[in-house]
Amino acid sequence: MNVTLLHRDMEKMSPGVEYISGESLYRPEVVRWRRRLEERYTPPEGAAVAVLLPCSARKPYSSSPSHRRFIQAIKRGAKKRGLVHEVIMTSPLALVPRELENLYPACCYDTTLTGHWSQEEKEVLARAIRSYAAKFGGEVLCYAGEAYAEVCESLGIEVVARGDLLAEDSLKALEERLRRAVAGSQGKGHNSIDALRRVADFQFGRGAGRALIPEGARVRRGRIFFEGEQVAAVSRRHGYLALTLRGGELLRSFSGYVVELSFYPEGSNVFTPGIEWAGEEIRPGDEVIALYDDQVVGVGRALLSGAELERATRGLGVVLRHRRRAA
Prior knowledge:
By secondary structure, the protein is of the alpha/beta class.
């Protein structure tokens, strides 16, 4: 049996479920996360330095007491937080950039903590760090202990402090190292718009962020506007972007998350016999754009993978959140 092909087929059919297991390195939604991070994610250009941090039991990480202390130290050291890119190291996801921490499954995963990392976990983390560092291009620092520090040192990454990371002397060391790292930096830093573009890339594919959130876009209370129209909103449930019809129009040419219909939808439910084509990247629960006669007629959530949407001859396939009324 070809195990790689088996995992690939499982990943296509899995919407993602809760898990508490040391075997979770190869759960479909975990593999999907690491693949998207490697293939779709681009670190912010405006950051002068990246800091690799340990994970926390509380999710999202920034709500934990430890990460609140880390963030305070980063602000004091860099003066401008946007000059530092914060990336969390964790198993089984490997890396979680700070701007993606509210996305499923990073927002709510759990796993058994034994204090011991297997060699396989270390190799998965090392691969993710190498990929990230190559794309970041700048200085990468590690502020973590135990297995995290061991992996970073093996890759030639400086470990700023050891021992108690919440001790005042450790936090002072982080501040001072960041102060030196950003000294003389001409970078503008990164902001909330940049972060949402990276979320869009991670969700829909590289290039989607610029297509969906062009220059001049604005964010108000989790809703994204362009030229006076709302194009998307951040879902409070899973952190991903929920599109409007205008957002679907902006994104349709830059995304494989499209379904082509054989009819003009009269209601919110789209059954599979009416779906002529669906993007291969679509997974259960993904945001999709519905087309009819080359026109965006709806946006909503897929209940099946792209392959299943095309193949199925009965059953509900897509639930539209917004649909265009027939003229």
